C-alpha cells in the first residue's frame, strides 16, 4: 500500500539517470532529477568558461538557476526555474546586476518573483508528520495488544482449535505488518538528509519487499477468515486438518508467489529507486491486483454471511423479540467489518489521485488501528477467552490460597466461531 516519502539509493548525484526511467518517477522525484540535470549542465558550462576573461562576473550555479558570465554594469535576467512550478504556475523572472564587487542579490527575491508560497511546503511537512505520528501510535499499540492476544491463544490448551489457529495467523500478519512499517520507515526516512528519490540499496529494497509481503499476507488471511466463517455457516468440512493446511498455503504461500513475480519484474524491467514508488507502474498490479480481488471476494463473502445471519434470525424460525433479533444481527455485522477488512471497499476501487490526503488518513491512520480492533473483538472480548482466563485465575487462587471454586473444575468452549 504506498505511502508518504520514498526511498533512496546507491545512485550518486553525478550518475546519469536514464530518461525512460525518469518518465515513470513520482512528480517530486522527477523535479529533483530535472534539477540535477540542470546543475550538471551548468557545471559543464562553467568549466568551459574557465579559460575566459577574468574581468566581470563569473558564471555560477545558484541551487536552482545557472547564471552566465556578465560584464561589469550588465544586468542579467533569468526566468523562474521550472523547479518552482509545482508550488505556483508562474512565468516571472529574476535578475542580478554585475558590479565591480561581484554579483548583486537576486531582484526581486525568488518567493516574490516566482510567487512561491513559503508556507506550503511547511504545511505539507506538518501534515505528513502528524499522519506519521498517528500511525506510529496506532501500530505500536496494535503490536503490543496483538502480541498479548497471540500469547493468550497459545498459552491455554483449551483455546487451541482450528478457529483460533486461523485467528492467530491473522494476528501474526498484523504484527508483521506493524513491524514492516517500522522497518521501512527506518530504512527510508531515518535521516532528513536522505534523498528518497535516489536511494537504491539492498537494505531499503528488502524492507519494501518485506512490507509488501506482510500487507499482502494480511489481506489473504482476512480472506481465509471469511472463507472459514462461510464454511462453518454452510457446512462443517473445514474441521478437517487438511483444510487448515490449505488455508495456510493460501494465506502465506500465495503472497510469496505474487511477490516473487513482482521482484523479478522490478529487477528486469523497472529497477529504479528503492522500489517504493509505484505510480503509473504496470508491474504494481502484480501486487495490487490480487489484493483488490481478495477485497472484492471478501466483500461478497461478507454479504453472504449477513444474508445467512438474517435467515437464521428469521422470527418465523426462531421465536424471540424482534428488537433483540436485530441487535444480534447488528452486533454480528459490526464485529465482522474489521475481521473482513470491509472498510477497504470505501476507497480501494477509487483512482489513487482522488483526495490523496483523505486516503492517507484512512489507509494509514485508521488502518494502523485495525489490528487493535481485531485483537480486542476476537480475543479480549471473546467470552470463551474470558472464561478460560477466569478459570485459570481461580485455579491459581486455589493453588496459592487453597480456595476451591466450582467454576475452576472445568471450562467449555461454547462459541462456534
From TrEMBL:
Keywords, alphabetical = Cell membrane, G-protein coupled receptor, Glycoprotein, Membrane, Receptor, Transducer, Transmembrane, Transmembrane helix
* Intracellular or extracellular location(s): Cell membrane
GO biological process terms on file:
adenylate cyclase-activating G protein-coupled receptor signaling pathway; cell surface receptor signaling pathway; positive regulation of cell population proliferation; positive regulation of multicellular organism growth; response to insulin
- The G-protein coupled receptors family 2 profile domain is annotated at 41-118, 131-382
Under the cellular component aspect of Gene Ontology, which terms does the record hold?
plasma membrane
What protein is this chain from? Growth hormone releasing hormone receptor
The UniProt similarity line reads: Belongs to the G-protein coupled receptor 2 family.
What molecular functions are annotated in GO for this chain?
Answer: G protein-coupled peptide receptor activity; growth factor binding; growth hormone-releasing hormone receptor activity; peptide hormone binding
Species this protein is from: Takifugu rubripes (Japanese pufferfish)
Q: Where is it chiefly localized?
A: membrane
Q: Which InterPro entries match?
A: GPCR_2, GPCR_2-like_7TM, GPCR_2_extracell_dom_sf, GPCR_2_extracellular_dom, GPCR_2_GHRH_rcpt, GPCR_2_secretin-like, GPCR_2_secretin-like_CS
Q: Indicate how the chain sits in the lipid bilayer.
A: Multi-pass membrane protein
Q: Which SUPFAM superfamilies match?
A: Family A G protein-coupled receptor-like, Hormone receptor domain
Span-the-membrane segments of this chain are: 133-156, 168-187, 207-231, 243-263, 283-309, 329-350, 356-381
Amino acid at each position: 500500500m504506498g505511502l508518504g516519502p520514498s526511498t533512496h539509493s546507491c545512485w550518486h548525484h553525478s550518475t546519469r539517470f536514464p530518461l525512460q526511467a525518469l518518465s515513470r518517477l513520482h512528480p517530486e522525484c522527477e523535479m529533483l532529477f530535472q534539477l540535477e540535470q540542470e546543475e550538471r549542465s551548468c557545471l559543464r558550462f562553467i568549466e568551459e568558461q574557465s579559460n575566459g576573461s577574468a574581468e566581470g562576473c563569473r558564471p555560477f550555479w545558484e541551487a536552482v538557476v545557472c547564471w552566465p558570465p556578465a560584464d561589469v554594469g550588465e544586468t542579467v535576467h533569468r526566468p523562474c526555474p521550472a523547479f518552482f512550478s509545482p508550488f505556483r504556475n508562474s512565468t516571472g523572472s529574476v535578475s542580478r546586476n554585475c558590479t565591480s564587487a561581484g554579483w548583486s542579490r537576486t531582484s526581486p527575491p525568488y518567493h516574490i518573483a516566482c510567487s512561491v508560497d513559503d508556507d506550503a511546503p511547511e504545511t505539507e511537512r506538518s501534515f505528513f508528520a502528524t499522519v506519521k505520528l498517528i500511525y506510529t501510535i496506532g501500530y505500536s499499540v496494535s503490536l503490543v495488544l496483538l502480541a498479548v492476544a497471540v500469547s493468550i491463544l497459545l498459552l491455554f490448551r483449551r483455546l487451541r482449535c482450528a478457529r483460533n489457529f486461523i485467528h492467530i495467523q491473522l494476528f501474526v500478519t498484523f504484527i508483521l505488518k506493524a513491524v514492516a512499517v517500522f522497518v521501512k520507515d527506518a530504512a527510508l526516512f531515518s535521516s532528513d538528509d536522505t534523498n528518497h528519490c535516489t536511494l537504491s540499496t539492498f537494505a531499503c529494497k528488502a524492507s519494501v519487499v518485506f512490507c509488501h509481503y506482510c500487507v499482502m499476507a494480511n489481506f489473504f488471511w482476512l480472506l481465509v477468515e471469511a472463507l472459514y466463517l462461510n464454511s462453518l455457516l454452510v457446512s462443517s468440512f473445514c474441521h478437517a486438518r487438511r483444510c487448515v493446511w490449505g488455508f495456510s498455503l493460501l494465506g502465506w504461500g500465495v503472497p510469496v508467489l505474487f511477490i516473487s513475480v513482482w521482484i523479478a519484474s522490478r529487477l528486469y524491467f523497472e529497477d529504479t529507486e528503492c522500489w517504493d514508488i509505484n505510480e503509473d507502474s504496470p508491474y504494481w498490479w502484480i501486487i495490487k491486483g490480487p489484493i483488490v480481488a481478495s477485497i472484492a471476494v471478501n466483500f461478497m463473502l461478507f454479504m453472504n454471511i449477513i444474508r445467512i445471519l438474517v435467515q437464521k434470525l428469521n422470527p418465523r424460525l426462531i421465536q424471540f423479540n424482534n428488537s433483540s433479533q436485530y441487535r444480534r444481527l447488528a452486533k454480528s455485522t459490526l464485529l465482522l467489518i474489521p475481521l473482513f477488512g470491509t472498510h477497504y471497499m470505501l476507497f480501494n476501487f477509487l483512482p489513487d489521485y482522488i483526495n490523496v490526503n483523505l486516503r492517507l488518513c484512512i489507509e494509514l491512520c485508521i488502518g494502523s488501528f485495525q489490528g487493535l480492533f481485531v485483537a480486542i473483538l476476537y480475543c479480549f472480548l471473546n467470552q470463551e477467552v474470558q472464561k478460560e482466563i477466569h478459570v485459570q485465575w481461580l485455579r491459581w487462587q486455589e493453588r496459592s490460597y487453597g480456595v476451591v471454586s466450582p467454576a475452576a473444575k472445568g471450562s467449555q468452549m461454547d462459541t462456534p466461531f
